[in-house]
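Our consortium's second objective concerns turning raw sequence data into structural hypotheses that experimental partners can test. To show how far this objective has progressed, the report includes one record in full. It was chosen at random from the queue rather than selected for favorable results. The single chain below, 364 residues long, was entered without modification.
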Amino acid sequence: MPDYTLKIRRFDPESGRPAYWQEFGVDLPEERSVLDAILRAKDEQDGSLSIRCSCQAAICGSCGVRINGMSRLACNTKLSEAAEDGRNGAIVVEPMGNMPVIKDLIVDMDAVHWKKVQRVVPWLLPEGDPPAREYIVDPESMIDVTQSMACIHCGACVSACLSLEVDPEFIGPAALAKAYRFVGDPRDAHTEDRLLDLAEDPHGIYDCTHCFACVEVCPKDVAPMDQIMRLRRRATADYGIKDQNNGYGHEKAFTDLIEKYGTLSEAQLLPKSYGDGSLIRAQVKPAALKELGAKFPTVIRGLTSGKVSPKTALLHHKLQDQDQIRRIYEEVESKEDRLELNLYIVGESGGEEEGATSEGGQEE
């Protein structure tokens, strides 16, 4: 049997000792999991080694850790795979990030993950009195939320989230994916209220930086960032929510500039974003002027680096055949319904006929 070395980050708050690294050698077949190796080391070498686990079948989500720097389920990661990405011949195992460590590989999920899930009101808020027996929903109308429903709350996306590293108050990818599960549910009667709440929160849907880290590490293909983008589209395109975070203005400014020039005019993007997509509104809105004033150092850096200039702030070159870009816009905007591709259901190879769904979840 292959001989593997685990380099595990240890921490016991009761000992008063700072975190340290400890190596364990284990002999297991290459198809066995990293969790199997950790449990073998615990059983045969050090009974104080701590990790949270349950089903050992990638269903419960309990054994989330970082393996060679990547947030993963220990039970769903083969030793052979982990060894290929190992460092100096060792498989490096650490507790998940962005959450307090309780002991060794066990983190406090209540302090971060579950607290943020509770923040988005993770239950249905239907209108009127409940039915005598149950709410009846056509299966087709639930297709849109199946991807977010697949979440097992392992916390891998929370661990990998770069926005949470910068802003611990960010609601986070797992909670926002859970929010879309109810925003997209036809039985819920408070869709606009939910979207307004998440759009107005400075740590809400516009705090995501699109780094794709949560998409990369999710073991169930929930793609939390995709759900966050869906929340944004519902808030801006469906309900026209002009939030205090200027998310609406930034999106409108971005898309309008691409439609007009074919490339992004960064010199115009900033003021337009604070004017709901309009330079004129930015000049007359006191709140916009205040926000622009706070961004003055950014403007100075852009000018000194040559990235922007007074000329580009007013004029921007258009792409050749710009009319083709406008044609794409016209084609998309002429559609009566916005189409969403649910890759969780149809797979990446699914074509438009079998995979395109409207926001209401009806197949096109």
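The partners drew two points from this record. The first strand starts at residue 3 and ends at 10. The CA atoms of residues 275 and 282 lie 4 Å apart. Both points have been shared with the crystallography group to help prioritize constructs.
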